[in-house]
């Protein structure tokens, strides 16, 4: 079973992504796992209506390439801005060439600056599918600050903080980000022998 397998060593998984930032953050959030990038493949474009669909599509594509005895991880994430009706959301990666500049421009003069990050992780292994979701609430700053993280981190201030995620840094992200929350939910599900269903 899952538990005995884990006790023999770290859970090995291949992340179906080219994003080295995501790899670094997932490794930091899951020190008990051994995660690598699946490789430089032409991953399918993200056409689903939900993060879950996109993460599943990446995992299923990865499944066709990875060795059978290794788990495959698909990840999809985005930022949802209240004043933009939840956009860019699931389209975050395609929304704008310079998302930070575009978001600051879209929110110029807007006082409601609430937003949230969402991350969905899907794991496929010989037993089927398991997934984990994580979100964090925050607000969009009026100018970029900080140098760690990636994407919208220089303008995202988590609820209860005054600094941006890029200022709070990668160590903070490894415990508190939407990606860390999704990773911990997935890890907890697998450790407790939780729900397994879906395609594989
Ligand atoms: P995808 O998951 O590859 O579709 O890309 C998600 C997009 O959402 C990224 O390109 C970023 O623009 C944004 N995003 C997701 N997670 C983060 C994060 O942790 N920090 C900053 N931006 C993020």
Characterization of this structure:
With 200 residues, this protein is an alpha/beta fold. Helices cover 34% and strands 24% of the residues. It has helices spanning 2-7, 20-29, 51-63, 92-95, 99-106, 165-176, 178-191; strands at residues 11-15, 33-37, 71-81, 114-125, 128-140, 156-158. It has a six-stranded mixed sheet. The longest helix is centred in the C-terminal third of the chain and has 14 residues, at 178-191. The protein is globular. The protein starts with a helix and ends in a 9-residue tail after the last helix. It binds inosinic acid. Inosinic acid binds at residues 19, 46, 76-79, 92-93, 99, 117, 149-153, 177, 179. Inosinic acid (IMP) binds at residues 19, 46, 76-79, 92-93, 99, 117, 149-153, 177, 179.
Can you list the strand order of the major beta sheet?
Answer: 2-1-3-4-5-6
* N- to C-terminal distance: 18 Å
The helical percent reads 25-40%
Assign the structural class, choosing from mainly alpha, mainly beta, alpha/beta, alpha+beta, or little secondary structure: alpha/beta
Approximate shape = globular
Which molecules are bound besides the chains?
Answer: inosinic acid
Q: Any idea what the radius of gyration is?
A: 17 Å
In terms of per-residue confidence, which ranges show pLDDT below 50 for 5 or more consecutive residues?
Answer: 1-7
- Tell me, rounded to a whole number, the average pLDDT: 92
